Backbone:
């Protein structure tokens, strides 16, 4: 939710770019920042540096790490499962993120029409985002999409028989997890809603006077003015999707099965580090993931020049 | 409205995945040291509700033997146990006494994480000889002590046999072909959704039995103990079970691999035969309402003596090499495996006690289900094959590899020849460190 707070304060033009006053007494600020700062150091920065070091070692967890230079990175090129995991993750990102954003945008536009009980619907639609990453929902998913699960029972009543176990068939398992991801459209939706509120009403009024229809107003006003928000959501969701772990871990019972069809990159990384006693390799994989995510983000920013419209 | 700079700033809140690989030891919630004077031990095991209760009971009872020692119990689930143990070892925070599995014994032992119990003076004179050897790692010594013996079994749910109107087989003469046709008959004679046999092609124990009957084994002293053709034969058998509907289709079989005992097809009366380890008889028998019969695995020749079964240590107790309370830890393990009092509390839940004195002493305390397991272990005593070599480093991955290759085959993504070769190749690369 902090992103939204940030966004609103940003949109209102407060808190940024003002006069930089010199405050000689920064101590209270540091004290208030301490919990976050300690977290950043202890849970993010120091482990990151440690993992950078470990990525150049042969480290089994059980014995001291041994420096092996670039060997881990060289090994990655011959690792068939690593390639599988990259493929799975890329499909997940490239299919899942646009679908999720499209759904989020569609619902945000609908909710922005000024319907009654907006806050109620907003909460309802946001709910999956709170739950979606949780273990409980992943287990529920597993039950629902099993061979004898709810989905197949309902389909059976409608006359469809001989359906697969969606989770346990390699050709549908990944699709089921993508569906779970799409379902958690709540947080981009809220951000879209906030963005929609920022679009001045007068543009629409003027367009209406000129005789623009609903669709025209959407494509000519809403979409262009919303592009910075779409872009923001896109970058964030791509990064998030690359790091997805819980769903795949729980749904496949930690195996990435059936037949490695849900072997997410992070899941393989976890297997390498914690069940195959190869933390050095896992650390190297983590850094490769950082590079991949960085490349995607850079591409995103580069391409954004051609489609994102900044009103400044 | 929004500027480039702001959008950029927002996206810098990124790389949490990095910390996944580097997170520190999984600190346990329980206290580690009593501190002043009185010493404390930490004991971690994986298990189930029954084992947790019995083990806590044993810890309490030990409080009367050694009153100024406090032992903190750290039970865990199998699935989380190994992650937790590995991170604790990495953080220098390994519990003093741990439960160990054969799959990971050399993984930990060869890296110096475990104490040589023989040197530390653990008493093993009442043990069956082979059961002590099962805890020895070559060149390292006795790194773990057998906590109970088990053997691979085929469980039969008598209720499903009755429904099908089919008699239980004679397990001293049956062959793999008999098993396949019997299972197919049961599937045919029962309702839709009830099967003769679980897909045993995805089960490590079956694989090992099958290899041993081919004159091979899962491992030899130099690595994998079988050839690609051997694996191919086994996988072809598994595939044929699916084709004749003796076993469920691939999708159902995959779901079954992650299932808990009471949710399993077997315990819910939807499957007549299931592979298990003998120490699981109690759990399955309870879940299936006491209708479980314990059968020998079939053989290639139809002679029980050729079934090549073996006594496996169902699990071990081991002591951390870095424990600060070595004497107390070894004394506690000594009491767990040698004392009749401990035996009466722990019974046969971790497998049939390898300590013969204890086994005799607890005979009267066993439940009906326990007795089924104990009787089985004793009845195969004269039919055993050679003891298998200990799982090498990296061998802990075998089950995952078998599952993967098996799934590829059962879903028709590969043929038996490729699946057999993949199985051998992947295992070989896993154990070549």
Residues:
């Amino acid at each position: 939710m902090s992103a939204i707070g940030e966004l609103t304060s940003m949109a209102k033009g407060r808190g940024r770019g003002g006069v930089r006053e010199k405050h000689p007494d920064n101590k209270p600020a540091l004290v208030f920042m301490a919990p976050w700062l300690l977290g950043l150091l202890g849970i993010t920065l120091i482990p990151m540096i440690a993992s950078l070091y470990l990525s150049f070692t042969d480290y089994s967890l059980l014995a001291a790490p041994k420096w092996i230079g670039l060997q881990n990175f060289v090994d990655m090129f011959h690792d068939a499962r690593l390639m599988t995991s990259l493929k799975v993750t890329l499909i997940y990102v490239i299919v899942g993120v646009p679908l999720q954003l499209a759904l989020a945008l569609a619902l945000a536009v609908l909710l922005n029409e000024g319907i009654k009980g907006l806050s109620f619907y907003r909460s309802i639609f946001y709910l999956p985002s709170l739950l979606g990453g949780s273990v409980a929902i992943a287990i529920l998913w597993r039950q629902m999409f099993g061979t004898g699960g709810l989905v197949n029972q309902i389909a059976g009543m409608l006359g469809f028989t001989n359906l697969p176990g969606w989770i346990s068939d390699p050709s549908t398992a990944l699709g089921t997890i993508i569906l779970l991801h799409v379902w958690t459209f709540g947080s981009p939706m809220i951000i879209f809603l906030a963005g929609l509120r920022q679009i001045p009403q007068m543009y629409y009024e003027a367009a209406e006077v000129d005789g623009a229809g609903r669709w025209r107003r959407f494509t000519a006003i809403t979409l262009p003015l919303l592009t910075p928000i779409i872009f923001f959501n896109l970058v964030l969701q791509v990064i998030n999707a690359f790091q997805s772990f819980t769903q795949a871990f729980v749904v496949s019972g930690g195996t990435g099965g059936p037949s490695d069809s849900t072997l997410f990159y992070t899941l393989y990384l976890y297997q390498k580090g914690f069940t195959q006693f190869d933390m050095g390799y896992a650390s190297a994989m983590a850094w490769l993931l950082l590079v991949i995510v960085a490349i995607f983000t850079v591409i995103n920013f580069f391409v954004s020049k051609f489609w994102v419209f900044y009103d400044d | 409205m929004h500027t480039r700079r702001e959008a950029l700033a927002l996206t810098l809140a990124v790389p949490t995945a990095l910390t996944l690989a580097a997170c520190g030891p999984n600190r346990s919630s329980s206290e580690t040291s009593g501190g002043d004077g009185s010493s404390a031990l930490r004991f971690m095991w994986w298990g189930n509700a029954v084992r947790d209760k019995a083990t806590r009971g044993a810890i309490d009872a030990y409080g009367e033997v050694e009153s100024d020692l406090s032992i903190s119990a750290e039970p865990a689930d199998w699935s989380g146990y190994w992650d937790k143990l590995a991170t604790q070892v990495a953080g220098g925070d390994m519990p003093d006494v741990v439960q160990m599995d054969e799959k990971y014994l050399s993984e930990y032992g060869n890296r110096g994480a475990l104490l040589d119990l023989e040197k530390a003076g653990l008493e093993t004179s009442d043990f069956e000889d082979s059961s002590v050897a099962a805890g020895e790692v070559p060149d390292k010594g006795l790194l773990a002590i057998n906590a109970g013996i088990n053997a691979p079994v085929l469980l039969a749910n008598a209720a499903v046999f009755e429904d099908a109107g089919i008699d239980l087989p004679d397990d001293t003469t049956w062959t793999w072909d008999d098993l396949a046709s019997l299972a197919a008959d049961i599937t045919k004679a029962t309702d839709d959704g009830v099967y003769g046999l679980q897909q045993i092609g995805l089960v490590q124990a079956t694989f090992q039995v099958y290899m041993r009957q081919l004159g091979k084994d899962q491992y030899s002293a130099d690595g994998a103990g079988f050839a690609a053709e051997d694996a191919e034969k086994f996988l072809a058998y598994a595939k044929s079970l699916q084709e004749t509907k003796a076993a469920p289709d691939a999708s159902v079989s995959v779901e079954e691999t992650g299932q808990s005992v009471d949710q399993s097809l077997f315990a819910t009366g939807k499957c007549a035969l299931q592979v298990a380890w003998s120490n699981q008889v109690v759990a399955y028998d309870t879940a299936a309402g006491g209708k479980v019969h314990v059968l020998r695995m079939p053989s290639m020749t139809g002679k029980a003596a050729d079934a090549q079964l073996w006594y496996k240590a169902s699990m071990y107790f081991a002591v951390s090499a870095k424990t600060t309370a070595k004497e107390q830890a070894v004394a506690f393990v000594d009491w767990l495996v040698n004392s009749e009092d401990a035996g009466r509390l722990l019974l046969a839940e971790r497998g049939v006690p390898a300590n013969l004195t204890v086994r005799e002493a607890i005979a009267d305390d066993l439940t009906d289900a326990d007795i089924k397991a104990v009787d089985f272990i004793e009845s195969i005593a004269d039919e055993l094959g050679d003891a298998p070599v200990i799982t090498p480093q990296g061998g802990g991955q075998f089950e995952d590899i078998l599952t993967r290759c098996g799934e590829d085959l059962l879903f028709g993504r590969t043929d038996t020849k490729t699946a057999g070769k993949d199985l051998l190749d992947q295992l070989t690369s896993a154990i070549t460190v």
Q: What stands out?
A: The mean pLDDT of chain A is 87.
